[in-house]
Amino acid sequence: MTIELKTFGNYKAVLGESPVYDREKNKLFWVDIDGKKIIVNNLDTNEENYYNTPDVVTSLCLIDNIRIIVTLRHGFHILDLTTGKILPFLELQNDNENRFNDGKCDVMGRYWAGTMNLDIENPKPTASLYKLEGKKLTKVLERLYRSNGLGWDPDDELFYLIDTPLRKVFEFDFDKNKGDIYNKRVVIDFKDEPGRPDGMTVDEEGYLWIAHSAGGKVSRWNPKNGEKVFQIKLPVLYVSSVTFGSPEMNRIFITTMSRGGEPLAGRLFTTKVNIRGLQSYKFLI
């Protein structure tokens, strides 16, 4: 596979994360968690727009042409893209040990979002994975350390979740009609890999693409046997997430952090690949 990695857009994030591609608009949405911004890149015009948030913003899902839903520190909020106004939608109660982290929507329009323990060096298993259906919030998993990258296989029969401090990727059976996950097992172990598993996406063949935080790369894995089949090295150490985009869905977009201090740290990177990704789903409000 020929890789021609380049930066995209001009924004330099403190902590870039959660890239989501809007195929209808040919736009890429992503967040700067600590910069408290949502960035929108138009792939047709190369125009770049920014929206400020009142607190750390950690993930997002599309709703329609003028609205997205995002997770801030302790709750879900809706952003009006025409006015820039952001309004509370649903708040977590009494969760001072954790904050929201990564999240995505499933094929039925549910927003799955996890939290992370705030002690980065010595995390405790106080975090959870939540599922938002309309205005109904359900706690799906408990005793997580740092719920991170997540995704579904192409048939929407399997669910994947990373718990970063454990350096493992877990697989569950997924009932898309009920929105239930069960039969947890480890499919990928990062024990021999540089860095820690962070954000993740899934391609049309069901392989997982995982960002290596403090590992300087994105790797592609076969979840059936836990083997790494390919990797892309970046000129920055702290790589945070990855998703597919472009009308052909054969381009990947990679978010990074400024933490390493390299000249291109915090920038958004992109390259064409010879595999297509899966589309993102919208939140059903």
Write up what this structure looks like.
This protein is mainly beta. Helices cover 0% and strands 55% of the residues. The chain contains no helices and 24 strands. It has strands at residues 6-8, 16-22, 27-32, 37-42, 48-52, 57-62, 67-72, 75-80, 86-91, 98-105, 111-117, 127-133, 136-144, 147-152, 158-163, 168-175, 180-189, 196-202, 208-213, 217-222, 227-233, 239-245, 251-256, 268-272. The strands form 6 sheets. The protein has a 4-stranded antiparallel sheet, with no helix packed on it. A 4-stranded antiparallel sheet has the order 2-3-4-5, with no helix packed on it. Strand 10 (98-105) and strand 11 (111-117) form a beta hairpin. It is globular and about 45 Å long. The model has no long low-confidence stretch (mean pLDDT 97).
| Assembly category | single chain
Helical residue percent band:
under 10%
As a percent range, the share of strand residues is over 45%
Q: Give the termini distance in whole angstroms.
A: 40 Å
Coarse shape: globular
Keywords: Hydrolase
EC number: 3.1.1.17
InterPro entries: SGL (IPR013658)
Domain SMP-30/Gluconolactonase/LRE-like region: 15-257
Short description:
This is Gluconolactonase. The protein is an all-beta fold and 285 residues long.
Protein traits:
four-stranded antiparallel beta sheet, 285 residues, mainly beta
